[in-house]
Amino acid sequence: MSPRRLNRLRVWGVNPSLRAAFGRALVRFRLGFADSVSGMIKRHDQNGRGISRRNFLRQLAKTSALAGAGALAARFAAAQDATLQSLIEQNQRGGEFELGFDSASRTIPMPKAALPTLSPLTAQTTDHAIRQYEGIVAGGGWPTVPVGDRMRLGNRLPAVITLRQRLAVAGDLGNNVGVTDIYDSYVEAAVRRFQARHGLAVDGIMREQTFAAMNIPAPVRLAQLRNNAARLRSLSMHLGNRFVVCNIPAAQVEAVENGVAVSRHTAVVGKPDRPSPDINSKIVEINFNPYWTVPVSIVRRDLIPKMQEAPDYLTSNRIRIFDPRGNELTPSQINWYSEEATNYQFKQDPGDFNSLGSIRINFPNKDGVYMHDTPFKNLFGEDFRFHSSGCIRVQNVRDLVNWLLIETPGWSRQQIDAVIKSGERIDAKVAKPVPLYWIYVTAWATPDGIVQFRDDIYNRDGLASIAGARG
Questions:
Q1: Contact (CB, 8 A) for 439 and 433
Q2: Which terminus of the chain is more exposed, N or C, with fewer CB under 10 A?
């Protein structure tokens, strides 16, 4: 045993004979130590929990019995705290990482699901965010993160230093977590928060979409906040106690009650060349197992080209054709290489194949749009959810409909599910029509101070010209 360690034992008040015994025990202890530590950590990881220093030392005291010096080895381990902590970190993270993920997440909070995008306070909190970003711009903005291959937990790259700086400027990463080239748990937690604030898949991995959002210059983000603050001031008054809002750039629907987002739904909204319109209306009716009447615009732009490519398209999708008198026609009766088809009505039968799915949500509007279910559930998992022709598809739409009909007698969740399962065509009038807002907001701040951004998918913010001027 080294003189340094013997001196430490003297400080503890251990007598010489015990020191000799401890030296022999320590050799045996070390032989089993690595296997014991690995086993402990593996068990904790399999249970989905990290291992704290306190728990580690508690387990160490038990493990030291192998060496015949339990209490003494535990005290020795406490003295070697830094070394043991390093060993824990290496086993858990495979390198030089701090056990800081949970503490980092608590210190820098994620956006709260219960806070709605639109509320009477949104305009005010967005004005606060403008002042925050004015300070960021005045300080020189943030650095550009070098774009390369994916970066993730465990990487050691020079670009991580710049990434840390970028995350810290916007407040996603604390200033007290060090400046290293290691993509540690602090950086991963900060990237997750950044992704949540920008409507991206939250996985803590730097990939193409995250690089792109991160490298939008600070002056562009400031201009975005200013543009949207004006929109929010015109939207945030007299919303009602219960309302539904769809933020089109976020492709997201919220049911809001007494200032709380009681449910949030991923949405699929209009393509850039077929945008979803701004709407201020009230939801008045729910159609169960609806027919889909194909709009003339879709007949012209989609249906005619599809029939030219695949003459059995209508038949295979159970879409029927009716003339103005209600007589049913066959596809072969129409010249698909002309505009003749726009003179007829096309209706798709109810069913799980129907483009509206099992539910359609109706509200008066001049654009002839509505919200609905869809058989193409895979689209909800994409970051880019701009695929419709103006209407809005809603994920978990039954939950939203249950909330809409909560005050309508005869429409419990069980009854809703039973009607859908039956396949019967039934309408439900909403007892108290619910205000509905389709809004176009690409930047806002919620009352907790979290600032969020989305892509200006319809180019209504003028951001391209601002970015171009900086280039």
A1: no
A2: C
Both structure tokens of 192: 């997750």
More confident residue, 253 or 111: 253
CA gap 440, 278 in Å, rounded = 7
CB neighbours of 70 closer than 8 A, spacing ≥ 6? 61, 62, 64
Highest-scoring range by mean pLDDT, 30-44, 287-301, 308-322, 401-415: 401-415
Question: 322 or 113: which carries more pLDDT confidence?
Answer: 322
State pLDDT tens for residues 66-105: 444 444 334 434 434 443 343 334 333 333 333 333 444 4
**Cα(242)–Cα(436) distance, rounded to whole angstroms?**
9
Determine the average pLDDT of the residues in 373-379: 72
Q: Helix, strand, or coil here: 319?
A: strand
CA-nearest of 159, 161, 200 to 180 is 161
Q: Pull the structure tokens for residue 235.
A: 């939207």
Pairwise pLDDT comparison (248 vs 9), residue with the higher score: 248
Q: Does domain 122-216 have CATH number 3.30.1360.120?
A: no
State how far Cα 392 lies from the chain centre.
19
Does residue 53 have a pLDDT over 50?
no
Of 313, 288, 284, nearest to 298 by C-alpha is 313
Longest dimension (CA), the chain: 109
Mean pLDDT of 451-468: 82
Residues 6+ apart with CB under 8 A from 143: 162, 165, 166, 169
Helical pair 53-63 and 81-93, crossing angle rounded to 10 deg: 100
Residue range 124-151: average pLDDT? 95
Helix 70-79 vs helix 53-63: angle between axes, to the nearest 10 degrees?
A: 150
Instruction: Show me where the domains of the chain are located.
Output: 3-93, 122-216, 217-291+350-449, 296-349
| CA-derived radius of gyration, the chain | 30
Q: What is the pLDDT of residues 175-211, one digit of tens each?
A: 887 789 999 999 999 999 999 999 998 999 999 999 9
Which tokens hold the place of 230? 């004006």
DSSP code at position 376: -
Q: Is 444 helix (H, G, I), strand (E, B) or coil?
A: strand
Q: 5-38: b or e for each residue (b if 16 or more CB lie within 10 Å)?
A: bbebbeeeebeeeebeebeebbeebeeebeebbe
DSSP lists the bridge partners of residue 268 as 393
Residue that wins the pLDDT comparison between 167 and 47: 167
**Which structure tokens are listed for 298?**
């879709």
Amino acid code (one letter) for 137:
V
φ, ψ for residue 221, nearest 5 deg: -65, -40
State how far the Cα of 178 lies from the Cα of 283, in Å rounded to an integer: 52
Which CATH class for the 217-291+350-449 domain?
A: mainly beta
